[in-house]
Design a protein that fits this description.
Elements (H helix, E strand, L loop, with lengths): L4 E4 L5 H14 L8 H8 L4 H10 L1 E7 L2 E9 L4 E7 L8 H15 L4 E7 L3 H6 L3 E9 L5 E10 L2
Antiparallel strand pairs: 1-2, 2-3, 3-4, 5-7, 6-7
Length: about 160
Protein backbone atom coordinates (compact mmCIF):
# COMPACT_ATOMS: atom_id res chain seq x y z
CA UNK A 1 0.00 0.00 0.00
CA UNK A 2 1.41 3.46 -0.86
CA UNK A 3 2.55 5.68 2.00
CA UNK A 4 0.08 8.31 3.20
CA UNK A 5 1.52 11.82 3.41
CA UNK A 6 -0.20 14.65 5.29
CA UNK A 7 0.52 18.30 4.48
CA UNK A 8 -1.14 21.67 4.94
CA UNK A 9 -3.76 22.31 2.30
CA UNK A 10 -3.89 25.43 0.16
CA UNK A 11 -6.61 27.10 -1.89
CA UNK A 12 -5.42 24.98 -4.84
CA UNK A 13 -6.70 21.91 -2.93
CA UNK A 14 -10.26 23.24 -2.60
CA UNK A 15 -11.75 21.14 -5.42
CA UNK A 16 -10.16 17.95 -4.08
CA UNK A 17 -11.38 18.77 -0.56
CA UNK A 18 -14.91 19.39 -1.86
CA UNK A 19 -14.90 16.07 -3.72
CA UNK A 20 -13.66 14.17 -0.66
CA UNK A 21 -16.29 15.85 1.50
CA UNK A 22 -19.11 14.97 -0.87
CA UNK A 23 -18.04 11.33 -1.29
CA UNK A 24 -17.53 10.84 2.44
CA UNK A 25 -20.87 12.39 3.37
CA UNK A 26 -22.81 10.39 0.79
CA UNK A 27 -21.19 7.27 2.26
CA UNK A 28 -22.85 8.31 5.57
CA UNK A 29 -26.16 7.29 4.02
CA UNK A 30 -25.35 3.72 4.99
CA UNK A 31 -25.03 4.66 8.67
CA UNK A 32 -28.82 5.14 9.16
CA UNK A 33 -28.25 8.09 11.52
CA UNK A 34 -29.35 10.78 9.06
CA UNK A 35 -32.15 11.20 6.56
CA UNK A 36 -31.60 11.49 2.81
CA UNK A 37 -32.44 15.22 3.04
CA UNK A 38 -29.87 15.75 5.80
CA UNK A 39 -27.22 13.86 3.81
CA UNK A 40 -27.94 15.91 0.69
CA UNK A 41 -27.73 19.23 2.57
CA UNK A 42 -24.57 18.11 4.40
CA UNK A 43 -22.83 17.00 1.21
CA UNK A 44 -23.45 20.38 -0.42
CA UNK A 45 -23.22 22.59 2.66
CA UNK A 46 -20.76 25.16 1.28
CA UNK A 47 -19.73 26.72 -1.98
CA UNK A 48 -16.23 26.42 -3.42
CA UNK A 49 -15.67 30.14 -2.72
CA UNK A 50 -16.62 29.66 0.92
CA UNK A 51 -14.31 26.66 1.16
CA UNK A 52 -11.39 28.71 -0.25
CA UNK A 53 -12.09 31.38 2.38
CA UNK A 54 -12.14 28.76 5.13
CA UNK A 55 -8.83 27.31 3.93
CA UNK A 56 -7.33 30.80 4.23
CA UNK A 57 -8.78 31.39 7.71
CA UNK A 58 -8.15 28.00 9.33
CA UNK A 59 -5.62 25.21 9.15
CA UNK A 60 -6.59 22.57 6.64
CA UNK A 61 -4.61 19.38 6.19
CA UNK A 62 -4.82 17.03 3.24
CA UNK A 63 -3.74 13.40 3.15
CA UNK A 64 -2.66 11.76 -0.08
CA UNK A 65 -0.66 8.94 -1.52
CA UNK A 66 0.62 8.22 -5.01
CA UNK A 67 -2.98 7.73 -6.20
CA UNK A 68 -4.03 11.25 -5.13
CA UNK A 69 -5.92 12.96 -2.30
CA UNK A 70 -7.52 10.62 0.24
CA UNK A 71 -8.86 12.81 3.03
CA UNK A 72 -8.74 16.16 4.77
CA UNK A 73 -9.04 17.72 8.18
CA UNK A 74 -9.94 21.23 9.28
CA UNK A 75 -8.63 22.78 12.49
CA UNK A 76 -9.94 26.08 13.84
CA UNK A 77 -7.27 27.19 16.31
CA UNK A 78 -9.18 30.30 17.40
CA UNK A 79 -12.08 28.12 18.57
CA UNK A 80 -9.87 25.17 19.72
CA UNK A 81 -12.04 23.00 17.49
CA UNK A 82 -11.53 20.23 14.98
CA UNK A 83 -14.12 21.30 12.42
CA UNK A 84 -13.86 18.20 10.23
CA UNK A 85 -12.04 14.99 9.44
CA UNK A 86 -13.19 13.31 6.24
CA UNK A 87 -11.75 10.35 4.35
CA UNK A 88 -12.84 9.27 0.89
CA UNK A 89 -14.76 5.97 1.22
CA UNK A 90 -12.26 4.19 -1.05
CA UNK A 91 -9.44 5.09 1.37
CA UNK A 92 -11.06 4.10 4.66
CA UNK A 93 -9.41 1.71 7.10
CA UNK A 94 -5.90 2.66 5.94
CA UNK A 95 -5.01 5.04 8.79
CA UNK A 96 -5.74 8.20 6.83
CA UNK A 97 -8.17 9.68 9.37
CA UNK A 98 -5.77 8.92 12.21
CA UNK A 99 -2.88 10.60 10.39
CA UNK A 100 -5.00 13.69 9.74
CA UNK A 101 -6.15 13.86 13.35
CA UNK A 102 -2.56 13.43 14.59
CA UNK A 103 -1.48 16.39 12.42
CA UNK A 104 -4.28 18.55 13.81
CA UNK A 105 -3.53 17.57 17.43
CA UNK A 106 0.17 18.34 16.88
CA UNK A 107 -0.73 21.76 15.43
CA UNK A 108 -3.03 22.46 18.38
CA UNK A 109 -0.28 21.56 20.85
CA UNK A 110 2.22 23.73 18.97
CA UNK A 111 -0.26 26.61 19.26
CA UNK A 112 -0.41 26.08 23.03
CA UNK A 113 -3.95 24.74 23.22
CA UNK A 114 -4.78 22.63 26.27
CA UNK A 115 -8.01 21.12 24.93
CA UNK A 116 -9.64 20.38 21.60
CA UNK A 117 -13.34 19.96 21.02
CA UNK A 118 -15.43 18.77 18.09
CA UNK A 119 -18.94 17.84 17.06
CA UNK A 120 -18.77 14.27 15.82
CA UNK A 121 -21.28 12.82 13.41
CA UNK A 122 -22.99 9.91 15.13
CA UNK A 123 -21.17 7.26 13.14
CA UNK A 124 -17.77 8.93 13.76
CA UNK A 125 -18.01 8.76 17.57
CA UNK A 126 -16.19 5.38 17.81
CA UNK A 127 -13.31 6.73 15.68
CA UNK A 128 -12.82 9.77 17.88
CA UNK A 129 -13.15 7.70 21.06
CA UNK A 130 -10.42 5.37 19.77
CA UNK A 131 -8.26 8.48 19.25
CA UNK A 132 -8.68 9.57 22.88
CA UNK A 133 -11.62 11.96 22.69
CA UNK A 134 -14.27 11.74 25.41
CA UNK A 135 -17.97 12.11 24.77
CA UNK A 136 -19.67 15.19 26.11
CA UNK A 137 -23.28 16.20 25.62
CA UNK A 138 -25.34 15.54 22.51
CA UNK A 139 -25.31 18.61 20.26
CA UNK A 140 -27.08 19.80 17.15
CA UNK A 141 -24.83 20.93 14.32
CA UNK A 142 -26.53 23.54 12.15
CA UNK A 143 -25.37 23.71 8.53
CA UNK A 144 -25.18 27.06 6.71
CA UNK A 145 -28.39 26.02 4.96
CA UNK A 146 -30.19 25.76 8.32
CA UNK A 147 -30.44 21.96 8.20
CA UNK A 148 -29.68 20.45 11.59
CA UNK A 149 -27.67 17.28 12.23
CA UNK A 150 -27.64 15.47 15.57
CA UNK A 151 -24.04 15.03 16.69
CA UNK A 152 -22.05 14.25 19.78
CA UNK A 153 -19.87 16.87 21.42
CA UNK A 154 -16.41 15.47 22.19
CA UNK A 155 -13.27 16.75 23.89
CA UNK A 156 -9.59 15.83 24.02
CA UNK A 157 -7.35 17.06 26.82
CA UNK A 158 -3.94 17.98 25.38
CA UNK A 159 -2.01 18.53 28.64
Amino acid sequence: MPEIVVREATAADASDIAAIHEAAVFAEGDAAHYSAAQIEAWAHSRSLDRLVAQIAARRFFIASDTTGPLGYGQLDLSAATVRSTYVHPAARRRGCGLRLLEAMVAAAREAGLKRLKLDASLNAVPFYEACGFSCAAPVVHRLATGVELPCRGMVLELS
